[in-house]
Automatic annotation (TrEMBL):
Keyword Protein transport set for record: no
Chain ranges passing through the membrane: 7-28, 40-61, 73-94, 106-123, 143-165, 177-198, 227-248, 254-274, 283-300, 312-331, 343-362, 368-386, 391-410
Protein name: Spermidine synthase
GO biological process, one term: polyamine biosynthetic process
Record's keyword terms, sorted: Membrane, Polyamine biosynthesis, Transmembrane, Transmembrane helix
Lineage per the UniProt record: Bacteria, Pseudomonadati, Pseudomonadota, Betaproteobacteria, Burkholderiales
Origin species: Variovorax paradoxus
Keyword Membrane: yes
InterPro entries: SAM-dependent_MTases_sf (IPR029063)
PANTHER family on file: THERMOSPERMINE SYNTHASE ACAULIS5 (PTHR43317:SF1)
Length: 680
């Protein structure tokens, strides 16, 4: 009975630490997101911080277990746990808010360090440190099952946040709840630490040298080749996770929350492979992995890889099989318990390297999403290293790698043959290409970001000023333009695309354009002519629109078009009550704020309408099926104005309709939003 209670204490400590570790990441990042304009770079910098601190935590666990006695470890760790309580509650202090002239990268890193640094560090140390203590107990043989448990806790935390926590509570309540949970963890972890110091105080740290290890227990130290595989296999699994996620969310289907599926399967393979050796069978997963490598590589240059009906199962299922192979082979190489902290340190370092290669390096060195093809090739070569003792398996691995390279080259050739320009940076990959439309025949130039089209233009000089896609005369924005005052207009555009809306510009008008991606400005100038053909004067603001508008003096816009909600990563900070305050401050009394809410997967019109009602302004929906035009897309635009008479002008009269509001719809704020609740 006593043994069961001690094991439960160990398990509870590890489970709670992993659950809180995964929970704090979206919680803290969402708190600071509106402060930095909601830029995607905020998430990237946060992930760099989390990976770095996690690695530091694993290094700490490895060092103390090899150099300090158990009682010294306990004294140090309990002291740090108590000190970390000073960081609670987990609410970012207002005085850390940026003033506008700082380097955001260093400010975010410093802000995270000051807010969550020590608690996050201690949570990251718990898994390997407690497992090193379990290794000194009579039931040390099952120590690696605790690693499986920690990944199960991470998986449950990942799924519970968007489904159970985020839709039901504000950020402040989430932060307070997490802080209480962390306080309970400190009590649990301190109790575990003191118990180990009391019951197993005579245990010595693991020997640091191979000779000492042999003399202490006869356990052979790991080979250097195995240590390299501890690093390489998790690095490739992390690489494939991010590369597959990029591919399915950018090139297959821009579905919100789709990223949860590959991450869940990635964590689930950890759970299976380290829970027991029964789940990973080479006879099953080696042939499956070989077939998956070929199919996934083939799909990168064939339409089955981008069609949602085939691409999703191919790449999501493929990721599961390949991660089972990579994590299964990693589990087969796990060392004796005395070396487990070094093992976990290498796993953590490998995961960080794989993530950095895809998340930080690839956007700067690859012109398009080629990291998945590279990752598949490297996985085949890793199989050669793992299976090096059998000639026919080595030869098969080399053949698979050659096959992946062949399809990668075909993908690159296909992209370059059809594209005029391929450009990529932190914000994604952009491509421009020309296509021939039929009935009647005409050539158009398109700008795409993965599966999302950001505009097109007729190449015929007589038609190149004609609005296309989502911006026709019968669309909500087209009607709002026509309803604007007859004199010179001041128009704000949030999101440029190909620059189509500039086609409505007249002599004397001023168009102020807010765009976060400098490459969009570059392509709009070099590949399209909407901006230079427009008689209107254009002003350009590079950076996040909300951040810029918050700092600017009132602009006096007649019309402000908010056009940034078509992809999977909806910039929520542009769709909150606080954002509406910013927009209204820049509008003339009879001005219109137009929100482009056309989205295949999200019902955003009620969100805008609820915020408008909260602010005492009026909102209508203009839906246009564009059935009378072959060049336009069906669209939904929500128009917001202080004066209801503005929304009843011609040509809005008859086209605008009221927006039904579900009774339980809460207005979105910087403190609360619920994307899951608006899924169609």
């Amino acid at each position: 009975m006593e043994r069961a209670g001690i094991q439960f204490l160990f398990a509870g400590t590890i489970f709670s630490s992993a659950f809180l570790l995964f929970l704090v990441q979206p919680l803290i990042a969402k708190q600071i997101l509106p402060w930095f304009g909601g830029s995607a770079a905020v998430w990237s910098i946060c992930m760099v911080f989390f990976q770095a601190v996690l690695l530091a935590g694993y290094a700490y666990s490895d060092w103390v277990t090899r150099h300090l006695r158990v009682r010294t470890q306990a004294a140090l760790h309990v002291g740090l746990l108590l000190a970390s309580l000073a960081f609670l509650p987990l609410v970012v202090a207002a005085h850390l808010k940026p003033t506008g002239d700082e380097d955001p990268t260093w400010l975010i890193l410093g802000l995270l360090l000051a807010t969550i640094g020590l608690p996050y560090f201690l949570l990251s140390t718990t898994g390997p440190l407690v497992q090193s203590w379990v290794a000194r107990t009579p039931w040390s043989a099952r120590v690696y099952r605790y690693f499986s448990l920690s990944n199960l806790a991470s998986l449950l935390s990942l799924l519970s946040y968007p489904v159970l926590i985020e839709p039901r509570s504000s950020l402040l309540r989430q932060a307070q709840g997490w802080s209480w949970g962390y306080g309970a963890f400190v009590v649990l972890c301190a109790g575990t630490t003191l118990l180990v110091a009391y019951r197993w105080s005579e245990a010595l740290p693991a020997p640091a040298s191979p000779a000492a290890a042999a003399a202490a227990g006869g356990e052979a130290p790991p080979r250097w080749s195995d240590a390299l595989l501890w690093l390489a296999l998790p690095a490739l699994a992390s690489w494939l996770l991010l590369a597959v996620t990029n591919h399915i969310t950018q090139n297959v289907a821009a579905v919100p929350f789709l990223w949860i599926l590959p991450l869940s399967l990635y964590l689930f393979t950890f759970v299976l492979c380290f829970e027991s050796d029964r789940w990973y069978r080479r006879g099953v997963f080696l042939p499956l992995a070989a077939g998956v490598l070929v199919l996934c590589a083939f799909g990168l240059q064939h339409h089955i890889g981008s069609d949602v009906r085939t691409g999703l199962p191919i790449y999501v299922g493929g990721l599961f099989v390949l991660c089972m192979f990579l994590h299964g082979e990693t589990a087969r190489l796990r060392p004796a318990p005395r070396y487990l902290t070094r093992f976990y340190l290498m796993l953590s370092l490998g995961g960080a390297i794989g993530g950095a290669m895809v998340g930080l390096v690839a956007p700067h060195v690859l012109p398009a999403y080629y990291e998945l093809g590279i990752g598949l090739t490297l996985t085949a070569l890793a199989a050669v290293a793992v299976l090096r003792h059998r000639l026919w398996l080595r030869v098969s691995g080399v053949a698979l790698a050659a096959c992946c390279v062949f399809f990668l080259v075909a993908q690159i050739r296909s992209d370059r043959s059809g594209a005029r320009h391929l450009m990529r940076n932190f914000y994604g990959a952009l491509i421009t290409f020309d296509v021939r439309r039929a009935n009647p025949p005409s050539y158009v130039r398109l700008l795409s970001h993965g599966s999302i089209k950001h505009g097109e233009q007729f190449l015929d000089p007589l038609r190149r000023r004609e609005p296309t896609t989502y911006y026709g005369a019968t669309s909500g924005i087209g009607r709002a333009m026509a309803a604007a005052p007859g004199g010179p207009r001041r128009v704000g555009l949030i999101g440029l695309g190909a620059g189509t809306l500039a086609s409505y510009g007249r002599s004397g008008d001023v168009y102020r354009i807010y765009e976060i991606n400098p490459q969009v400005f570059e392509l709009a100038d070099s590949e399209f002519t909407f901006l230079r053909d427009s008689p209107a004067k254009t002003e350009r603001v590079l950076g996040d629109a909300r951040l810029a508008l918050e700092r600017e003096a009132p602009q006096g816009f007649d019309l402000l078009a908010v056009d940034a909600f078509s992809g999977d990563a909806v910039p929520v900070h542009l769709l909150t009550a606080e954002a509406m305050d910013v927009y209204l401050r820049h509008m003339k009394p009879d001005g219109i704020v137009a929100f482009h809410v056309s989205n295949r997967y999200l019902e955003l019109a009620p969100v805008v309408a609820r915020i408008a009602a909260l602010k005492g302004v009026h909102a209508v929906l203009v839906s246009d099926d564009a059935k009378d035009s072959k060049w336009l897309n069906s669209t939904d635009w929500v128009l917001v104005a202080r004066d209801p008479g503005v929304l009843a002008r011609e040509p809005l009269r008859g086209a605008a309709s009221p927006i039904a509001l579900p009774a339980d719809t809460r207005p979105w704020t910087d403190d609360f939003n619920n994307l899951l609740g608006v899924l169609k």
